[in-house]
C-alpha cells in the first residue's frame, strides 16, 4: 500500500486482491484495521450474523444468541462482533464458539455461503448465502495474505518473568 512492492510475494498479493474482491472479506473486515470498526471515523463496530454451526458437521445454528442478549432486537439474534484478522495464525480456534480449528475450515464455511449456504436456517443472516466459488489455489493465496497481517512475536513460547 505504501509502494513497497517487494514486501509481498505474488501469492500474497493475489490473496490481498481476493480479500478485497472475490472473497468479499473486506466487506466486514475493513482495511486498515482488518476488523469491523467502520471507517472513516472508526466510532462504530459492526456485528454480523454468519450462521455459525453448533459443531463442525451440524445443521443447527450455535445456540448462543450473541448481541441479542443486550439489545433484544431480533435482527441481532446470533450476531457477533467482527473481530480482527491481524495475528489470525495465533488465534485458533475460530468463530465465537471455536467450532473451526483451522483457517481452511473457516474459508470453506464462507466459501459455501455461511450457515445458510451449508443448510442451516438463518433468517437474519447478514453474510450473503451465495457461494464464493474460490478454487483451492485461491484459498491458499487468501490464507497467505492473511498470514502477512501477523506480528513477528519476540517469542511465542517463552514468557519472561521477574522473580
UniProtKB/TrEMBL annotation:
Keyword Metal-binding recorded: yes
Cited InterPro entries: Cyt_c-like_dom, Cyt_c-like_dom_sf, Cytochrome_c_Peroxidase/MauG
Keywords per UniProt: Heme, Iron, Metal-binding, Oxidoreductase, Signal
MF GO annotations: cytochrome-c peroxidase activity; electron transfer activity; heme binding; metal ion binding
KW Heme (keyword) present: yes
Protein name: Cytochrome c domain-containing protein
PANTHER family: BLL6722 PROTEIN (PTHR30600:SF10), CYTOCHROME C PEROXIDASE-RELATED (PTHR30600)
Domain Cytochrome c residue range list: 10-150
Amino acid at each position: 500500500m505504501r509502494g513497497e512492492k517487494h514486501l509481498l510475494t505474488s501469492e500474497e498479493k493475489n490473496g490481498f486482491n481476493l480479500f478485497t474482491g472475490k472473497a468479499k472479506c473486506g466487506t466486514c473486515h475493513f482495511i486498515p484495521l482488518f476488523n469491523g470498526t467502520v471507517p472513516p471515523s472508526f466510532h462504530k463496530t459492526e456485528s454480523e450474523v454468519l450462521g455459525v454451526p453448533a459443531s463442525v458437521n451440524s445443521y443447527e445454528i450455535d445456540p448462543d444468541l450473541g448481541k441479542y442478549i443486550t439489545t433484544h432486537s431480533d435482527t441481532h439474534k446470533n450476531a457477533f462482533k467482527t473481530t480482527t484478522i491481524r495475528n489470525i495464525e495465533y488465534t485458533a480456534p475460530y468463530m465465537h464458539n471455536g467450532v473451526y480449528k483451522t483457517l481452511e475450515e473457516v474459508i470453506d464455511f464462507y466459501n459455501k455461503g455461511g450457515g445458510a449456504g451449508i443448510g442451516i436456517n438463518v433468517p437474519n443472516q447478514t453474510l450473503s448465502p451465495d457461494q464464493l466459488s474460490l478454487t483451492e489455489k485461491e484459498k491458499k493465496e487468501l490464507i497467505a495474505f492473511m498470514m502477512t497481517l501477523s506480528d513477528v512475536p519476540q517469542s511465542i513460547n517463552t514468557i519472561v518473568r521477574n522473580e
